[in-house]
TrEMBL record:
Residues 476-560, 597-678 form the 3-hydroxyacyl-CoA dehydrogenase C-terminal domain. It is found in: Peroxisome. Residues 295-471 form the 3-hydroxyacyl-CoA dehydrogenase NAD binding domain. The keyword Isomerase applies. This is 3-hydroxyacyl-CoA dehydrogenase. It catalyses: a (3S)-3-hydroxyacyl-CoA + NAD(+) = a 3-oxoacyl-CoA + NADH + H(+). Pathway: Lipid metabolism; fatty acid beta-oxidation. Keywords: Fatty acid metabolism, Isomerase, Lipid degradation, Lipid metabolism, Lyase, Multifunctional enzyme, NAD, Oxidoreductase, Peroxisome. PANTHER family: 3-HYDROXYACYL-COA DEHYDROGENASE-RELATED, 3-HYDROXYACYL-COA DEHYROGENASE. Belongs to the enoyl-CoA hydratase/isomerase family. Its main location: other. One of its GO terms (molecular function) is enoyl-CoA hydratase activity. CDD domains: crotonase-like (cd06558).
Length: 683
């Protein structure tokens, strides 16, 4: 079936794109659209062209799956050139989102109209490349450098209204009138002698303040750290102020080819597809449909319960929170309200939206109010006895097909399920803190969890904007289990002579937002620590006893000033040295390379064990967990992809070198086998 069709409406040729799900500009689409443009050029009756699309969006851009194979003609830049140089005006009608190549096609057209809900953007940077079909040269010529820079360098799209205000679209029209208005617009402009051509608006852009590029680099330094593509984006836009279009476009091509074949872009493309793949569950019958969920119950209004509730409230679900005591309930609801108000102050929600979300919330001290809930999520203290008691109560109260979920971080979901009469309805829904913000959700599949319950959880995750990954039952599931081995090594290296700052710095330089000791200070060293049971047996015990409980007390592993700037602490170093000498450990200088390898290689090994035990379905799922839940730098692809790029033989050799430090962990057989065969986890 044709993906691009043409239809003559009198003297206007209407070219329609139809390539579900996202109308990507695949080779086939490009060929067919080029033929349509040729048809318009050759026909004497046709005076103008409308390009439009079927479906819920205009286009998600170039077909990313084609980036790994040899290019097929016509290239997207050639197709766009043929549109731009057509002697007849071309109007593009954006029925929804137009991203990447979809936006670049629009830039090649002479006139652009869009529906109010359309989002227009160049997200290429997010997959480690730059707009490679003229976007870096045409967009600044159309909207100016200052508007173009953030669109290209952050990759975040803009609304149709904003696009209209900066001259990127000519008109905004309601969806039901789009086709008809586009044709009328095309007829109207066909009368004109000349049409705006993006690449010809100016030879080179001459009125730009030269500081704008460095200012932008400085302002976004933190976000751009370690990445190749944003810098190339900035350089490419700058070229539009220095070179004529043809020369600028040649440079853009050069940058594109360099980036697209580089490791960072491959890693980011892996992350893009892995996130989408993670939502799919292997081995389930195709006809398993999600159960309807309208009302959600939450037990516990603490740190997690409140955040979890916000996800559902924002998405329009009715939510009932049940607590033990009124004051805990009031505190929890107060925090939800405060968070929403803060979001509204930042302009990310209207007050009506806040009121609507809060309007879906009811609170109670009585479990019986869960009776009509379709899903109940437990977020009480992390103690098996309490969880069992809670699930026992739920089993008595919840309706027969209600799903009962635990937000436990570590506990055995099978054991929790076993204290109900319907373990098939039980699973883990492990949210990450802050639960209203973090995108990751580990969906923990118990031995008896039914396919339908699992599918419902995955479907719900999507509806509340989460990236869901299925994990089997084990201590800490995918994410925390791997975190534990990293922490083990970090602690061991302190005893061997590395300092907290040295260890944190290695991870920071690798691209993590923070290291383990910064993270501990942020979370509070006394999380889970009990003063009356403390016996000074760990470094953490001693720091807590000395009042060094993290950022909130002004000191923890680091000292903090009034601006929360951290500095290494001599007191802490003293405590560490003291522990080391008592344990008979010799302190030595540890190289950054050893720190990096000992922090990261055991994580890869744990990931391999998780794979071979069938806890994770695929390597990409593990990468998705670490990129979305723990700040693993996406441009390295996640731990398993990164390991592939390093070479599993190298990882194995490193693990063998450090095996003595790995407590009771074994080296994964899967890792050994793959290393021996020269394969990667993602092959
Ligand atoms: N190429 C190939 N496949 C794509 C794709 C693309 N550009 N965009 C999405 N897909 C696929 C997804 O992998 C998914 O496949 P699956 O069903 O097999 O898992 C399917 O389309 C649906 O995608 P989503 O689940 O993401 O659908 P949403 O409706 O949630 O989101 C979207 C739609 C906003 C378009 C989102 O898919 C997206 O952000 N896509 C990528 C956009 C992008 O990066 N474009 C730039 C491409 S590079 C380019 O244009 C180069 C040029 O400058 C030369
Ligand atoms: P919290 O201590 O902030 O909140 C727990 C709340 O549960 C308290 O408000 C308490 O009054 C209430 N509660 C206790 N027993 C109850 C009962 N029987 N009935 C009703 N309410 C009861 O704890 P937090 O941090 O929210 O953790 C909750 C769960 O989420 C734990 O299982 C934890 O492991 C898990 N988790 C925590 C994360 C975190 O970063 N804090 C991250 C992911 C999961």
């Amino acid at each position: 079936m044709s993906k691009v069709t043409t239809r003559r409406e009198g003297d206007v040729l209407v070219v329609s794109l139809d390539n579900p799900p996202v109308n990507a500009f695949s080779a086939e689409v490009r060929q067919q659209m080029a033929a349509a443009i040729e048809e318009a050029g050759e026909s004497d009756e046709i005076r103008a062209v409308v390009i439009r699309a079927e479906g819920r969006m205009f286009s998600g851009g170039a077909d990313i799956t084609e980036f790994n194979s040899a290019p097929v003609d016509p290239s997207l830049p050639d197709l766009i050139d043929s549109i731009e140089t057509l002697a007849k005006p071309v109007v593009i009608a954006l029925n929804g989102t137009a991203l990447g190549g979809g936006c670049e096609i629009a830039l090649g057209c002479h006139y652009r109209i869009a529906v109010p809900s359309a989002k227009i953007g160049l997200p290429e940077v997010k997959i480690g490349i730059l707009p490679g079909a003229g976007g870096t040269q045409r967009l600044p010529r159309v909207v100016g450098v200052e508007q173009a820079l953030p669109i290209i360098v952050t990759g975040n799209p803009i609304s149709a209204k904003k696009a209209e205000s900066i001259g990127l679209v000519d008109r905004v029209v309601e969806p039901e009138k789009l086709r008809e208005e586009a044709i009328a617009f095309a007829r109207e402009v066909a009368e004109r002698d000349e049409h705006p051509v993006s690449s010809r608006r100016t030879d080179k852009i001459s009125d730009t303040d030269p500081d704008v590029f460095d200012d932008f680099r400085e302002k976004h330094a933190r976000r751009l750290r370690g990445q190749e593509a944003p810098e190339k984006c900035i350089q490419a836009v700058k070229l539009a102020t220095e070179l004529p279009y043809e020369e600028g476009i040649a440079k853009e091509r050069e940058f594109f080819i360099e980036l697209v074949s580089g490791t960072q872009s491959k890693a980011l493309r892996h992350v893009f597809f892995a996130e989408r793949q993670a939502g799919k569950i292997d081995g389930l019958a195709k006809d398993v449909r999600p159960l309807p969920v309208r009302k959600v119950g939450i037990i516990g209004a603490g740190t997690m319960g409140g955040g979890i509730a916000m996800n559902f409230l924002s998405a329009g679900y009715d939510v009932t929170i049940v607590e033990r005591k009124q004051d805990a309930l009031d505190r929890g609801v107060g925090i939800i309200r405060k968070n929403y108000d803060a979001t509204a102050r930042k302009g990310r929600m209207t007050t009506e939206q806040v009121d609507a979300a809060m309007g879906h919330l009811t609170t109670s001290l009585d479990y019986r109010d869960f009776a009509d809930c379709d899903l109940v999520i437990e977020a009480v203290f992390e103690l098996m006895e309490i969880k069992k008691e809670v699930f026992g109560r739920l089993d008595e109260i919840c309706k027969p097909d209600a799903i009962m979920a635990s937000n436990t971080s570590y506990l055995d979901v099978n054991e929790i399920a076993a204290c109900t009469s319907r373990p098939e309805n039980v699973l883990g829904l492990h949210f990450f803190s802050p639960a209203n913000i973090m995108r990751l959700l580990e969906v923990v599949r118990g031995d008896k969890t039914s396919p339908q319950v699992l599918v419902t959880a995955m479907d719900l995750a999507k509806k509340i904007g989460k990236v869901a990954v299925v994990s089997g039952v084990c201590h800490g599931f995918i994410g925390n289990r791997m975190l534990a081995v990293r922490q083990e090594q970090a602690n061991a290296m302190l005893m061997e002579g590395a300092l907290p700052d040295q260890i944190d710095r290695v991870l920071l330089e690798f691209g993590f937002p923070m290291g383990p000791f910064q993270m501990a200070d942020l979370a509070g060293l006394d999380l889970g620590w009990k003063e009356d049971e403390s016996d000074s047996s760990t470094i953490r015990d001693v720091l807590c006893e000395r009042g060094r409980r993290g950022q909130k007390t002004g000191k923890g592993f680091y000292d903090y000033d009034e601006n929360r700037r951290r500095a290494p602490s001599e007191e802490v170093n003293e405590v560490i040295r003291d522990f080391a000498s008592r344990s008979g450990k010799e302190q030595r200088d540890i190289s950054e390379e050893e720190i990096r390898e000992r922090l990261l290689y055991p994580m890869v090994n744990e990931g391999a064990l998780i794979l071979e035990e069938g806890i994770a379905q695929r390597a990409g799922d593990i990468d998705t967990v670490w990129v979305n839940g723990y700040g693993w730098p996406p441009y390295t692809g996640g731990p398993m992809f990164w390991a592939d790029t390093i070479g599993l033989d190298r990882i194995l050799a490193g693990l063998e070198r450090y095996e003595g430090t790995m407590e009771d962990r074994e080296i994964s057989t899967l890792l050994r086998e793959k290393a021996a065969k020269g394969e990667g986890f993602n092959d």
